[in-house]
Recover the amino acids of this structure.
């Protein structure tokens, strides 16, 4: 049980490469926090600094009020699960799990008891005598998690633990890890590049890009109110659609006029802040599910755009329709039972009350 | 006509490409190999006169005191290679591997380069280095320990073997280090990090993670080093060329190796049949030792140090 606090943490590599900058975050006791971002965004480096595997160039990291900048990894009371599992290949599953406890001179009976408990919990009891090479990917993953759990550390660190699994197993392990967190209720810090994993598992999500925190929020807030264009495009599949254009104020109503001449009425509750932005360039962001034929019934402010169907991707429960207007491509998420023909020109409704607007220069959301 | 030509090419083409290798192997390996088997059972008196003696050559060699000395010397050398030289190589490799240093490549080259000199030249160089009073080695000893300026390394039967081992160490430590270094660079970093987090100290980390990971390479180096040790010849021969006693073999045969004994018997004394028998005995020794090493090495499951 522990809180993890990062204050002004930064990591520089030789050659003035800034991997992480100004990282400030308080991770609450028992929280499941996910660091997410594209590769090279500094999320793994941050995790490795918390683990003590990477020196901290700037700032302070503390675990439960103890500054750990100079504490060696073994004394931080943490356990880590690696992407490639890092199981000791010449040791059996039992020995892998016992290793850290033996090093810490726990009594034999206690080691046995803990291993048996964890093995039962993770369904590894029948595999305890096996070597890692005789296990499947999912089993190895479970052993890696088990090895971390037997330690009963105050913080768990996960470095892309599901990336090496196939899609089906990944979904299954995702659920199991969430259940595990509910069961043991220990602070978990989880790094992934997969926004679906982040959304489904995290109590809170830290979105990172180019070494900087973009936004820290719970999944729904992140989805509904992204603070900038990066977060808006990174969270959600298919990603949010963006249209370049400018604001046009006429009499009582205010509209967004896209570059290819499409005019969309801005929802009433948003008009106030756009009045002073008349004739200014902005980026309009709309999620795929807010463009489509079914919008009309349950949205107050509806715009209409017409475009040519480019690609149709049926997913079963829904269909992604990729469309092209004169200057932009965008995607709509529609009912899978409606048929669309490639090349067909269609008109779609847009739920303007769900629209996001971003500053052209700063990419920040206009709120 | 064309078809026939094509078929011929398909059949003979590969053989044509293989022929340089095959011809060379036949002349320089297969032929001497068979010849040596036959030769070992004959008493030769010059190249023309052969007489069949059965296993007498083998019996003679096995009973010969010189052979015993040679086997003893060679075995001492092999043990020193494995127990002193290889741990040193591994230690150096660990040092070089531990830091991400730009000079790493330079050190690697410096440590490796003695190997490129070749045994004959290393022997000659060290015959000068080991000179009493003026030799670099004795001066070094004098400076560091205040002892050893007058030591006659190549003339004292008890010191010849240590001198030989030191010269060989200078030559091969860096060479074997390259193998270890390559193996160490392939060890999964995450494994070492996992062990660090699990609470291992450097010693435990090495024995629990690093050594098991490089074990196949260690086994390979041990076997190759043993084979090399048992084939030792040029280095002592050149080192002891000008030393007292029989030129090339050291005082009281203290630098006589198995191959040295073979050379002396077959080419200096002209007894080719006995020489061939020695060659076969050496092959059997090497084969047996390597076999045992590999059996032990493969069977040994490196358990954790705890």
């Amino acid at each position: 049980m522990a809180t993890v606090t990062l204050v002004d943490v930064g990591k520089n590599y030789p050659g003035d490469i800034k991997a992480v900058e100004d990282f400030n975050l308080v991770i609450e006791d028992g929280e499941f926090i996910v660091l997410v971002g594209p590769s090279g965004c500094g999320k793994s480096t941050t995790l490795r600094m918390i683990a003590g595997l990477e020196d901290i160039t700037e700032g302070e990291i503390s675990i439960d009020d103890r500054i750990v900048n100079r504490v060696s990894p073994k004394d931080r009371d943490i356990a880590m699960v690696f992407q490639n599992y890092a199981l000791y290949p010449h040791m059996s599953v039992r020995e892998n799990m016992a290793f850290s406890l033996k090093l810490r001179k726990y009594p034999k009976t206690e080691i046995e008891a803990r291993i048996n408990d964890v093995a039962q919990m993770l369904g590894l009891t029948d595999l305890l005598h096996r070597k890692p090479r005789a296990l499947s990917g999912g089993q190895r993953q479970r052993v890696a998690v088990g090895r971390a759990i037997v330690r009963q550390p105050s913080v768990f660190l996960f470095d892309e633990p599901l990336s090496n699994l196939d899609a089906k197993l990944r979904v299954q392990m995702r659920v199991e890890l969430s259940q595990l967190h509910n069961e043991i209720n220990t602070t978990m810090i989880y790094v992934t590049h997969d926004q679906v994993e982040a959304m489904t598992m995290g109590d809170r999500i830290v979105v990172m890009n180019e070494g900087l925190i973009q936004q820290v929020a719970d999944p729904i807030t992140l989805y509904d109110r992204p603070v900038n264009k990066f977060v808006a495009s990174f969270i959600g599949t298919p990603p949010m659609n963006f249209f370049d254009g400018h604001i046009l104020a006429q009499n009582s109503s205010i509209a967004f006029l896209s570059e290819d001449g499409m005019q969309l009425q801005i929802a009433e509750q948003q008009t106030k802040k756009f009045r002073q932005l008349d004739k200014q360039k902005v980026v309009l962001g709309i999620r795929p599910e807010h463009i489509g034929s079914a919008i009309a019934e349950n949205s107050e402010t509806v715009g209409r755009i017409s475009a040519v169907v480019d690609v149709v991707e049926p997913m079963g429960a829904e269909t992604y329709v990729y469309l092209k207007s004169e200057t932009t491509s965008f995607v709509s998420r529609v009912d899978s039972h409606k048929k669309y023909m490639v090349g067909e020109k269609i008109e779609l409704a847009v739920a303007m009350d769900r629209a996001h607007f971003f500053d052209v220069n700063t990419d920040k959301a206009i709120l | 006509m064309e078809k026939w030509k094509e078929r011929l090419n398909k059949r003979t083409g590969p053989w044509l490409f293989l022929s340089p290798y095959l011809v060379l192997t036949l002349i320089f390996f297969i032929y001497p190999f068979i010849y040596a088997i036959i030769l070992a059972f004959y008493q030769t008196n010059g190249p023309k006169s052969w007489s069949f003696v059965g296993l007498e050559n083998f019996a003679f060699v096995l009973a010969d005191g010189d052979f015993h000395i040679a086997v003893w010397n060679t075995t001492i050398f092999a043990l020193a290679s494995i127990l002193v030289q290889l741990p040193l190589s591994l230690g150096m490799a660990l040092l070089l591997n531990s830091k991400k240093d730009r000079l790493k490549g330079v050190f690697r080259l410096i440590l490796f380069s003695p190997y490129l000199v070749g045994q004959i030249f290393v022997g000659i160089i060290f015959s000068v280095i080991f000179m009493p009073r003026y030799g670099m080695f004795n001066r070094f000893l004098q400076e560091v320990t205040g002892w050893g300026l007058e030591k006659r390394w190549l003339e004292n039967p008890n010191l010849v073997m240590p001198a030989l081992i030191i010269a060989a160490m200078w030559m091969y430590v860096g060479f074997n280090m390259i193998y270890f270094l390559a193996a160490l660079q392939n060890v999964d970093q995450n494994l070492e990090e996992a062990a660090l987090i699990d609470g291992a100290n450097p010693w435990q980390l090495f024995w629990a993670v690093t050594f098991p990971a490089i074990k196949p390479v260690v086994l390979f180096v041990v076997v190759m080093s043993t084979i090399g040790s048992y084939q030792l010849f040029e280095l002592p021969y050149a080192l002891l060329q000008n030393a007292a006693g029989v030129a090339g073999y050291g005082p009281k045969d203290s630098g006589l190796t198995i191959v040295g004994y073979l050379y002396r018997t077959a080419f200096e004394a002209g007894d080719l049949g006995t020489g061939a028998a020695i060659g076969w005995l050496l092959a059997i020794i090497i084969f047996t030792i390597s076999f045992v090493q590999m059996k032990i090495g493969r069977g040994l499951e490196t358990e954790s140090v705890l």
Summary: Residues 167-184 of chain A form the longest helix (18 residues). Chain A touches chain B through 25 residues (CB under 8 Å).
